[in-house]
Design a protein that fits this description.
392 residues; alpha+beta; nine-stranded mixed β-sheet; five-stranded mixed β-sheet; 23 strands; 14% helix; elongated
């Protein structure tokens, strides 16, 4: 993985990068015959070549789509190559495309403005992660390495930019940025029915720890939270501090926040849902002595399938009631992150930590989708004091 740590230098300092965007594999090369789109309206114009042969030029009134659907756009490793390259000439299925710092130009479209991809805000970073995680990796453990060159370039650019105070770039934490850590923790798995990788890749609070594409819950530029980040540590590799992590010592975030147990909460499942469920809702009526003072509906999305498989053993149907509840032995906890989101945690013991008390791993995310009392209402009222916890 030494080469992955040099990606920003190789592609960032290249005079030009030529991309065989239409090639499905390295052996295909970049030169091929463009297919004729017969279904598009247009005409054919004869064209005489210099050697006397007669060819054809196809003129269409409907533009082709540019290179977002090319085979190269399905591969994760090639994403940072396109972001880092100052000039990119792309040989696509239907046409050529040129991209540089001044803009993008294709055969059938007008030039569009471009920006330095290394200068980005929180929303742009989320879009980068969304696009990157939707692409394919032959070796799934390359999840962080395949974006390390770009992450390094963002870090270095932010340090030298006059806009550094409003940019990312404080510390890079396994795909998240410490400058924007609370926003970056609000990711959710698109395919929660996949298993977590057996081989360690990243701490559970990082999107890089799972194989699914991820989406982020958009909270806008401001996020109100009572979470206090106390400390963090990431076990980076000496060859590539922005790439793959070491399993030991453990990477962690230490924080102070309000944590609530899932024990006793009612659960609802869709009748058409697969089982065990990776997604379900918590339908919670608040009020003393069974009197409803408010109605809250929470969406639960687990990060991976094994959590759903384990949690079914902690579901029970109470006597004389149709509802299903988490049992009193349920190990799930909810860390309040914002006024409508909480991270779903499970306790863990790690022998390398000085203290094994209040150590958790992330297993999912909870979102308030309907509340009559606003946000979490009184859901956390029984949590008197914030707890200091360690997330692995």
């Amino acid at each position: 993985m030494i080469e992955s740590g040099m990606m920003d230098t190789v592609y960032g300092n290249a005079a030009i990068t030529i991309a065989a965007s239409a090639a499905k594999e390295a052996s295909e090369g970049m030169l091929h015959k463009f297919p004729v789109a017969r279904h598009l309206e247009g005409c054919t114009v004869p064209y005489r070549l210099e050697d006397g042969r007669v060819g054809k030029v196809y003129i269409h009134f409907h533009p082709y789509e540019i290179n977002s659907h090319q085979p190269i756009a399905k591969r994760a490793w090639t994403f940072q190559e396109s972001l880092l390259s100052p000039r990119l000439l792309s040989y696509g299925t239907n046409q050529l495309a040129w991209k540089c710092k001044q803009g993008t130009l294709c055969a059938n479209t007008q030039a569009s403005d471009s920006v330095d991809a290394r200068i980005l805000d929180s929303l742009k970073w989320k879009n980068i992660v969304l696009e990157f995680t939707s692409r394919n990796l032959t070796v799934s453990s390359d999840r962080l390495a395949a974006l390390s060159g770009y992450a390094k370039s963002v870090f270095l650019k932010s340090k030298s930019s006059p806009m550094a105070e409003t940019q990312l770039g404080s510390s890079y934490l396994a795909g998240l940025w410490s400058h924007n850590i609370l926003h970056d923790l609000l990711w959710k798995s698109v395919f929660p029915w996949k298993y977590r990788p057996v081989v360690y890749r990243a701490p559970t609070w990082s999107w890089a720890s799972i194989d699914s594409p991820v989406h982020f819950i958009d909270r806008g530029p401001t996020l109100h939270s009572n979470i206090e980040i106390l400390n963090f540590s990431v076990a980076v590799s000496e060859h590539d501090p922005f790439g793959s992590l070491q399993q030991s010592p453990p990477s962690y975030i230490k924080l102070r926040g309000h944590v609530k147990s899932a024990a006793g909460l009612p659960v609802q499942f869709s009748r058409t849902q697969q089982f065990p469920p990776s997604e379900f809702t918590i339908d919670y009526y608040q009020g003393p002595a069974g009197l409803s003072q408010g109605h809250n509906l929470f969406s639960v999305i687990f990060d991976t399938l094994e959590t759903a498989e384990r949690i079914v053993f902690y579901l029970e149907k109470q006597q004389n009631m149709d509802a299903i509840f988490f049992s009193r032995a349920c190990p799930l906890w909810f860390l309040k992150l914002t006024d409508t989101q909480a991270l779903i945690l499970a306790p863990m013991v790690h022998k390398e930590l000085e203290s094994t008390e209040h150590v958790f791993v992330r297993v999912g995310i909870l979102t308030a989708i309907y509340t009559t009392l606003g946000s979490f209402g009184t859901w956390y009222d029984d949590v008197e004091e914030p707890m200091i916890i360690t997330l692995l």
